[in-house]
Design brief:
The protein has 205 residues and is of the alpha/beta class. It has 8 helices and 9 strands. It has helices at 18-28, 58-66, 85-93, 104-112, 127-137, 142-156, 171-186, 195-199, and strands spanning 7-11, 32-34, 38-39, 54-55, 70-76, 79-84, 97-101, 117-123, 164-167. The strands form 2 sheets. Strands 2-7-1-8-9 form a 5-stranded parallel sheet, with helices on both faces. A 4-stranded mixed sheet has the order 4-3-6-5. A hairpin with a 2-residue loop joins strand 5 (70-76) and strand 6. The longest helix has 16 residues, at 171-186.
């Protein structure tokens, strides 16, 4: 039988398309659950509390962080983000996998805590394409976009630390690549317990 579920972290610079890729993966792989992050930033567009993020004020977030409520938290572009420890542990214990679209700081923290984690880095085909995507979102000022691009360079410099790289030139293809990675990871021999005994139907005393 398979062991407990595992974490999949999908990291990308702002504008890399990780939220869109996650949406497709979740629709096609029912065994995957999405980790809804807590954040202090304001909702964008049609984002809803409890579906896309748990929105809260900074005081609430810091109190939760200080109470060790999060398995990872980070200050990104002036706003706090964090992942609930209880939610993650419950999902893993029931055998579900969890996909998380988080910042590289969050990935660092999760690695240090000993979780079984598959790390995927997602980038557009070129830096110019990333810049155009940020502009076309029309959600940020020029100054914010420039800061996001500065941060993107620092993040991309670290992509060699990840297990997998997916180039998001076409959204559907990028999502398929992520799905294939997850399916391959599910079938690793190391993710099974007592597989030989189960095959021969050997019962332990």
């Amino acid at each position: 039988m398979r062991k407990n579920g595992f974490l999949i972290t999908l990291a990308a610079p702002s504008g890399g398309g990780k939220s869109s890729v996650c949406d497709i993966v979740l629709k096609r792989l029912p065994q995957i659950k999405y980790s809804i992050s807590w954040t202090t930033r304001e909702p964008r567009g049609e984002e809803k509390h409890g579906i896309h993020y748990f929105f809260c004020d900074e005081t609430t977030f810091i109190n939760k962080r200080d109470e060790s409520y999060f398995i990872e938290s980070a200050l990104v572009h002036g706003h706090y983000y964090g992942t609930s420890k209880e939610f993650v542990n419950n999902c893993l214990d029931e055998g579900s996998h969890i996909i998380m679209d988080i910042d590289v700081q969050g990935v660092d923290q999760i690695r240090k805590k000993g979780f079984s984690v598959v790390t995927i880095f997602l980038i557009p085909p070129t830096y110019h394409e990333l810049e155009e995507r940020l502009k076309n979102r029309k959600t940020d000022s020029y100054e914010v976009i420039q800061q996001r691009l500065i941060n993107a360079k620092k993040e991309i410099d670290r992509l060699i630390e990840y297990d997998y790289l997916v180039i998001n030139e076409n959204l559907e293809k990028a999502a398929e690549d992520v799905i294939h990675i997850i399916e391959a990871e599910e079938n690793k021999v190391s993710r099974y317990e007592n597989i030989v005994q189960d095959f021969y139907e050997i019962k332990e005393d």
